[in-house]
Automatic annotation (TrEMBL):
Domain Aminotransferase class I/classII large intervals: 22-344
Cofactor: pyridoxal 5'-phosphate
Pfam families assigned to the protein according to its UniProt record, in alphabetical order: Aminotran_1_2
Organism phylogeny: Bacteria, Bacillati, Bacillota, Clostridia, Eubacteriales
Name of the featured protein: Histidinol-phosphate aminotransferase family protein
Keyword list, A-Z: Aminotransferase, Pyridoxal phosphate, Transferase
Keyword Transferase: yes
Source taxon at top rank: Bacteria
InterPro entries, alphabetized: Aminotrans_II_pyridoxalP_BS, Aminotransferase_I/II_large
């Protein structure tokens, strides 16, 4: 019998919700699917595929159109099978054996997960009660710890807050000996991206995705953008056929004209703001939770009763995300109708708790 590595004993696999609910607001997905004309175009494109041939290993067409969308040269872009592949690629490419990765907690759990798979030491810097840190706090801790990689989402999942453009750039520039990875998966919902200087900073990688504001979570397509030498190193370790042909064709169709996405994004932001405002009214009325403002497509509720509320919502066929360790609920905005149902049930739960 083989001896399994010790690292496996302490690892907890990612646990996505697999149950079926009437309203699913746990995964930060868009409530929009693709417009019908794009779905039809993707369906028609399948007939053009030579299924006996490997996909384009350079992902050239996707990088060209992504470059146009992000205003970045295609040579500064790596395409990944979702952000997960890219996080793993970064950890295995840029950290030496036994190296160190610094994360800002709470943050996307897969940063630590893939660092541990690569057998890297993980330094967790805890945020304050409102899930905030100052740029100077991050700089000082990173200079003291000297990690090989600092990685954080901006704005943050699950906290919802983030560093503005100037703060993020100053963190990157102050840590010139550390690879700084800024995951902008939710930056479509804010206007503080550092893409404008990402290719000029020699120690910075920025991550983008089609899963959130583009409503293409099923496609599994993400991007790393950065300094050309860093991109060249990633291409040394990237699998040669990591993006299948169907995803490449679909991504090109999605990126060819993104005016539809800009309109959907406006509506997502509007629904989230309405959700936050309605939750704030419930917070003031019942005192069961507090609402933290976010720059994302989800609302954040802080409460000692997060697990109770989570379980009660599940009984009513509504799934949100619960983080008991941080006494918080993360609620992705749904459609106007979904949010209305959620709020009705949430008020009923709060009223019962108050009674």
């Amino acid at each position: 019998m083989i001896t399994l590595p010790e690292k496996l004993a302490s690892m907890t696999p990612y646990d996505p919700c697999e149950d079926v609910y009437q309203i699913k607001l746990d995964a930060n997905e868009s409530y929009f699917s693709l417009p019908e004309e794009l779905r039809d175009a993707i369906a028609a494109s399948i007939d053009t595929i030579d299924f006996n041939r490997y996909p384009d290993p350079t992902v050239a067409d996707v990088r060209r159109l992504a470059g146009r969308e992000f205003r970045i040269a295609p040579g500064n872009i790596v395409v990944g099978n979702g952000s997960d592949e890219l996080i793993s690629l970064i950890m295995n490419t840029f950290a030496p054996r036994g190296g160190k990765v610094m994360v800002l907690s709470p943050d996307f759990s897969m940063y630590q997960f893939y660092a541990e798979v690569a057998e890297l030491e993980v330094v967790n810097m805890l945020k304050d009660g409102e899930f905030m840190l100052t740029e100077q706090q991050v700089i000082d801790r990173a200079k003291a710890e000297k990690p090989d990689i600092l990685i954080f989402s901006n704005p943050c999942n699950p906290g919802g807050q983030g560093f503005d453009h100037g703060e993020a750039v100053r963190i990157c520039m102050a840590l010139e000996d550390t690879l700084v990875v800024v995951d902008e998966a939710y930056m479509d919902f804010w206007d503080q991206s550092i893409l404008d200087c990402s290719t000029a900073l020699e120690n910075v990688l920025v991550m983008k995705t089609l899963s959130k504001a583009f409503g293409c979570a099923a496609m599994r397509c993400g991007f790393i953008i950065g300094y050309k030498d860093l991109i060249d190193q990633l291409n040394k370790t990237r699998s040669p056929y990591n993006i299948n042909t169907m995803t490449q064709l679909a991504a090109c169709i999605v990126l060819e004209d993104t005016s539809w996405q800009k309109e959907q994004c406006k509506q997502l932001i509007a629904r989230k703001e309405e959700l936050e405002a309605a939750c704030q009214k419930l917070a003031e009325k019942y005192g069961v939770f507090t609402v933290l403002p976010t720059h994302t497509n989800f609302a954040v509720l802080r409460t000692e009763k997060c697990t109770e509320i989570f379980e009660e919502l599940k009984k009513r066929s509504i799934c949100v995300r619960c983080f008991p360790k941080f006494q918080m609920l993360r609620i992705t905005t749904g459609s106007e109708q979904e949010n209305a149902i959620l709020l009705t049930e949430l008020e009923d739960i709060c009223a019962d708790m108050q009674a």
